Amino acid sequence: MRRRQPPPTPRHGERQLALPHSRTLFARVALVRIGAELVPGGVRFRVWAPGHRDVAVVIDGRDFALQREERGYFSTVVEGAKAGTRYQFRLADGDYPDPASRFQPDGPHGESEVIDPAFEWRPWRGMDRKNAVLYEMHVGTFTKEGTYAAAMQHLPKLADLGITILELMPVSEFPGAFGWGYDGVDLYAPTRLYGRPDDLRRFVDEAHAHGLGVILDVVYNHVGPDGNYLKQFTPHYFSEKYENEWGEPMNFDGEEAHGVREFIAGNAAYWVEEFHFDGLRIDATQSMFDASEKHILREIRERVRGALLVAENEPQDTRLLREHGLDALWNDDWHHTARVAATGFTEAYYTDYEGKARELASMATSGFLYQGQWYRWQKKRRGTPSRDIAPERLVCYLQNHDQIANSATGERLHQLTSRRRLHALTALLLLQPQTPMLFQGQEFGAKSPFLYFADHHEELAKKVRDGRREFLEQFPSIKGRELAAPEERRTFERCKLDHDDRDADLERLHRELLALRREQPFDGELRASAHGDECLVLRWFADGARDRLLIVNYGEPRTIEPQSDPLLAPPPGFERWARVWATSDDAAVLSKPTA
Question: For 195-201, which contacts have Cβ atoms below 8 Å and span 24 or more sequence positions?
Answer without folding.
Answer: 195/147, 195/148, 195/149, 196/103, 197/102, 197/103, 197/115, 197/117, 197/275, 198/119, 199/147, 199/148, 199/149, 200/148, 200/171, 200/275, 201/119, 201/121, 201/275, 201/276
